[in-house]
User: Fold these one by one.
Assistant:
Number 1:
Amino acid sequence: MKFTADHEWVEIEDGVATVGVTNYAQEQLGDVVFVELPEVGRSIAKGEAVGVVESVKVASDIFAPLSGQVAEINLVLTGDPSLVNTDPQSRAWFFKVKLSDPAELNALLDADTYRKLIA
Amino acid sequence: MTERHATKNDNLLRTPLYATHLAAGARMVEFAGYRMPVQYKLGVLREHLHCRAEAGLFDVSHMGQAELAGPDFETVARALETLVPADMLGLASGHQRYTQLLTGDGGIIDDLMVARPPPEGGMLSMVVNAARKQKDYAHIAARLPAGVTLKPRDDLALIALQGPAAEAVLSRLAGAATGMEFMQVARLDIGGVTATVSRSGYTGEDGFEISVPAGEALLLWRLLATDKRVAPIGLGARDSLRLEAGLCLYGADISTTTTPVEAGLGWSIQRRRREEGGFPGAATIQREFAHGALKKRVGILPDGPAPIRPGTALFESEAAPKAAGYVTSGSLGPSLGRPVAMAYVAAPFAANGTRLVAEVRGKRLPVVTAPMPFVLAHFKRQRVS
């Protein structure tokens, strides 16, 4: 699992990245009450705001960690946004993106680097 | 309650309960120059629901408490009536009223509670918003006649106990609490602590606001917090509770650019004052009572699940180019399980049930204007039969 400075995690398998927010991010957000995801098929560019995660008080953007095309979104999550709090780095995945520029993977953070960032 | 600690990482003020909040696992944030608990271990959603189901305990010692003193009640009440539109002369001893400090245009400088504490009833006490207290005190002090003085009471703390179990919890320590009605004020002995108690709050629930010397705050907090029905509640749930209750937040839903009539607070201006005027902005406010305000505060219920946040523009239709209003408060209403919001809309769109659209992240989402409060208020009122 890789990470971004925007507190997202990325799991790569066969050129497809699964994306979610980190446990640290959900702790900072508090109770998540709403999630908005990009449409399947949409082309997204690295750094673009493609979704939203909202706690009672705050709305935060979800940024595309990598460029590509949205292959799948987690409809279980839109039905039960509290999954972000209870299982952020597994069942609460947000979307899957078919990568268009594998070179972007080099910019992701490994677990140790991310741990130091939030320490 | 004001005590500056410049020693640590920040220059923020702390209430006498600061260490208690940390020990209870609170997440602390900056609010109005204070370091305050935004949530405890339960989290905003469960704190909100707990307060509606049982009882919540709030440290609101950051709010400004002050006294207005003079030779006699009538002189003090007349002095305050030159600054606010409520009937202060008609305030009975042992009661309080909600009112606003107004600008010459009828804009709201701050909203406040004014009490006439018993038994003397010779002076008035007030509770103002934390972020506005210095401005309020300067504004009031500069306009008082000779012989009437404003005394900030930074030596006092303020604790709110709110929720359906509030009366049962407080009456175990102070039996006389049971006999109090909504907006009554009394001096009570609470387990050995002498307190000024009002039956009021900012949640839409029955409850009490309890003013005590700062040195007694910790003892009072512990007396109340040890009751199994009581959970501490942070500023996060305080905001969602007051939003569901349709209560205004100063700086969001009311400001110097809104009048009490526009804000739907006309009920707080009693008939004698409406007729006589004699308060700042009276000409504007009397005109609005007679002919209607140009914009009005309304409740907003979105059709969908997306919260509608402050600053969101509202439109008459999908295609309308010009906004009909704007949202001033909005979040999930935890008790309703759906988003709720407050907004100002131009008068023609203010009727309940008006269909509008809210522009959220480039999309226009359907909403409807709705009556407030969004949840039924549970105040303790005298039964009229």
Number 2:
Amino acid sequence: MKRKSTAAPANGALRSLADLKPDPNNANKGTTRGRALLHTSIREYGFGRSVLVDKHGQLIAGNKTVEAAGESGAPELVVVQTDGSQLVVVQRTDLDLSDSAARELAIADNRVTEVGLAWEPATLKSLQESGANLEDFFRPPEWAKLLNASEDVVADETLPEMECQPFEHHDYIMVVFRDSHAWTRACDLLGIRREGVTLGGRRKIGIGRVIGADRLFEILDGKRKK
Amino acid sequence: MITPAIALVCMSRRRARTWPRQSGRFFPEATLCVAEEERDEYHGLTKRELLLHPNNVTGIGPVRQWILDHVSSPLVYMVPDDIVGAYGLTGTYANHIAPPLIWDLLVNTIECAEAAGAHLCGFNQAWDVRKFTPLQPFNLNGWVDGPMGVVGRELRYDPKLKLHADTDFALQHLRKFRIIWQDNRFAFAHDRWKQAGGNAVNRTKAAHDVEFAYLHRKWGAHLRTRWAKGTFISKISVERRQHGTDML
């Protein structure tokens, strides 16, 4: 058999994330925390690994990565076609292993895999029954333990990055103006302006405005100094 | 592509007959977004050109994302096609709101959201004035559906979710931007789940269950769902206030 590999931009078959089909029989159902860590890793360090698809674009490995990529913006695809005889190397030109970011990515890569793994016993069993040889990957006691494991109650897990962070607090104060002079004076002091709106050709009317705390403190501090 | 400062897009499917007396009454200036195969049915219902999406784009998540991908305005409102009422909830009785005040309300709300650092805004989901809490005119950590505004394009809808994409989208915003902006003083009434058309083609009990299971795996304890009185209730559990500082 003639073996070849070509590195090329996304071809006609695989142009966007939508062309990558998830594996309906993925035996790793994933975990809430794993998904959260994966999001953090992609956001902080970018993509560290490739994903693997079959000749039809069906995902073999990387289902969660593709999910996360879709949610955090659709990255450009680089498709490398190979028959498995060559090792595909992803070279990050922006990273240097002597930098902390590269080291952190190395930890993130392993940790996301570790935390994000949750086998689906029923899927594994069905794969085995359909002829897949899984004996090399699970010793008999491990296999027995896995099939007898109860379902994880993932719904009780919370995501660390969704939690209220130290001192994080979102709140608001409403200020009511009783006459137009007070309103225009406040708009002047706080730098609030009317904005033109193109749809309908009219200008907006005053129903309320929001000003961020940083801007408010900036203005108040400026006034105090005077 | 349409490029006003704020785009107002109404998604509709197989409701050309009811649209003029439902959402069309409240959003006469909206751009209608429908499937290509329904071009003739919706032709002439608004002054604006139709925004036609491919026929195979169906479900909340895919359609909303298609709109965000094909409308270049930085601020986009997406409204459903089953609106039957618009109300202000701050009085003893719900006050009816009509155009052009509705447009002013939409503009003001999305600008408030942007100024507050939120990238997603919407309104009270209950149009019963008795459920309005005067001490909480704005909500910063819930989820919104119905008419909803999106600031920018930093997050994407999950294409797998044809029913509960809005819940997921709000949670994504809470994760990244920490807050959403929900103006509880106003609400839009829907003729929800009673009509043919719309998203009815995707809606089954089994499909709800599949999406809830997926969302629970994805968001864990931050999303609570339950079936009650023949429908489902989704509640987001994301704390955004430090305890003990609510009333100084």
